[in-house]
Amino acid sequence: MSQFAINILFVGASFAIYIGIAIWAKAGSTKDFYVAGGGVHPITNGMAIGADWMSAASFISMAGLIAAGGYANSTFLMGWTGGYVLLALLLAPYLRKFGKFTVPEFIGDRFYSRTARMVAVVCLIVASLTYVIGQMAGAGVAFSRFLEVDATTGLIIAAVVVFFYSVLGGMKGITYTQVAQYIVLIIAYTIPAVFISLELTGNPLPPLGLFSEHSASGEPLLSKLNEVVSALGFDAYTAMVDNKLNMVLFTLSLMIGTAGLPHVIMRFFTVPKVADARWSAGWALVFIGLLYLTAPAVASMARLNLMTTIYPDMAGQVENYDAAAANPIAYENRPEWIRTWEETGLITFDDKNSDGDIQFYNDSTDFSDRGWSGNELTVNNDILVLANPEIANLPSWVIGLIAAGGLAAALSTAAGLLLAISSAISHDLIKGAINPGITERGELRAARISMSIAIVVATYLGANPPGFAAQVVALAFGIAAASLFPVLMMGIFSKRVNNKGAIAGMLSGLTFTLVYIFIYKGWFFIPGTNNLADTPENWVLGISPLSIGAVGAIVNFAVAYLVSKSSEEPPREIQELVESVRYPKGAGGAVSH
Amino acid sequence: MADEKSNAEAYWKANVRLITGCLIVWALVSYGCAILLRPLLSSIPVGGTDLGFWFAQQGSILTFIGLIFFYAWKMNRLDKQYGLEE
Asked: Where are the transmembrane segments (chain B) (predicted)?
């Protein structure tokens, strides 16, 4: 069977499962549509949260980022997992106890203000929509590479499948497809990792392999990797980071952002009890941890594999790295996978010194004594996971599995985000503000229509990504961190914060964060409109625009506190509401009223 | 009524204390061991590198998982102890 046929088989079979689940789990009520009926088991929910959370960015991009940045990019590993501790301890059990359908609904009720609810709706839609663009674009790339259709056609196929199970089944359909998608993506991610770990270290468990001996050289894997990359002018893989303040703030932004993302929070509304919300956060992190503990191993091993493919003399024990560096492979003899990826434009080669060999190094270091006149090979970080099975010469069914896994990761997150958007529109905007008297059936229809519109918009934006696509994930996390997380937390842990404080806090945190990002990235991301160049010398106290969400959150907390202090206490019934949220007794199911 | 109220307050205080303790550990492994204190831990070797690197790429994630389960287990006991479980 050809590789193409195998890919079709794997992707087709996984899609057939998702559609089968959609038909089985059709939503009959708004409760089914928004919270899957409220009866999801915590382990099932943990798995669904795993798929909901792990996006194309986690599956496709993260290992590549770590491979390129080494220790410095550990921020993604800690940031995207540490947020679950905040969720489990500070938000999930109480929001579950509150027992409503959406995040803006809590903010509106707790701060007895329709304005607060609408501000939350806007933050939610901007954060989720920017995030979903990346998912759709990621699905398009996976389709075009593995199924040989163009990215737009691939995107439309993906949109139709998502449409089918999310519009039909709402949260109920999404929950059970996410469970299936988690299983597909974790198998797809770990199998190649196990093979590569065995090949490089003899240890079948990648997280242990990372800290084991590299079989070919007899040195610890990470020391070997340090030597190889240093010989080519790159920073050592495990090198310290000088700007610790920025590293701390970036990690904190990712953690707070994770805890404030509405599509993740919503998943905790689907379990029967408060205690289940706590357990499902733990299970979610176990399932997420399986991938996040494998990713750094994949990153270092793939980087070493890539380097020793170009410089075969560096593979074993090396006496003299200069001599090994002088003997790269010739472009003519490049392996098949480099040829395939060249076709996608994600690997490019430019023979700058016209010697026919591939010089792959960090050209901010001067290697003219080696006769090199610049780096000749550009490898996009995103291909690392997708090309991994080919780099390690794994059988072709593993490649089919990777294709199905990448699509599962992108589609499961897209569906969760689309549900967050559509429920904010149908429940908060239509039922909450425009037409409070809407019937149950009318609201369900409104939810399905807004889901359909959200899918069309996301597909359009995925096919025509705005120029700032690369920045949008940072934007989504910045918004969630600076606007939603602080008011949610204060709404539970303080009885004193009132409507004025919450609104002022959200708006000031959001404005502060956006202005700081726009100053360096351009106003509304329009190229050329930035006031300062986006380089570390220009950053205030060395804080990158990507790390500013944490500072925005602090601004939000401070403003909300000061404004509340200088205005009246919240009314008695609101203080009682805060009390009732704090104690598990008498939770009942999620209800609408 | 007064008893019920002070019982609930004691429960909430115990919960906040537990959260504070867990968050100290949370910050200590990630911001502490993995980032700020890494130079101090650099003399402790782990598989070709140092302990701080291990915390950054594995240790903190494992600790986070442990923390959430510990908190869920402790809170279940508190819920029962104060008669506030569902």
From this structure: 21-41, 53-73
Question: What ipTM was assigned to the predicted interfaces of this complex?
Answer: 0.97
The string of pLDDT tens digits covering residues A467-494 is: 555 566 767 888 899 999 999 999 999 9
A520, A521, A523, A528 alpha-carbon torsion, rounded to 10°: 100
Question: What is the per-residue pLDDT across A85-141, written as a single tens digit (0 to 9) for each?
Answer: 999 999 999 999 998 899 999 999 999 999 999 999 999 998 998 888 878 877 877
Residue ranges per structural domain of chain A: 3-304+393-582, 311-388
B22 neighbors B71 (Cβ within 8 angstroms): yes
Closest Cβ opposite residue B76 in set A220, A275, A493: A275
Summarised one tens digit per residue, pLDDT across range A155-205 is 888 888 888 888 888 999 999 999 999 999 999 999 999 999 999 999 999
Q: How many C-alpha atoms does A187 have within 13 Å on its Cβ side?
A: 16
CA A162 → CA A9, A159, A442, distances in Å?
19, 5, 22
Question: What residues contact residue A361 under an 8 Å CB cut-off, 6+ apart?
Answer: A232, A233, A234, A325, A367, A372, A375
Spans of all domains in chain B: 20-81
Calpha distance A455→A449 (Å, rounded): 10
Handedness of CA A76, A60, A405, A188 (dihedral sign): negative
Structure tokens at A564: 């509340």
Overall size of chain A counted in residues: 593
Q: Does B10 touch chain A (CB under 8 A)?
A: no
Total beta-carbon pairs less than 8 A apart between chain A and chain B: 137
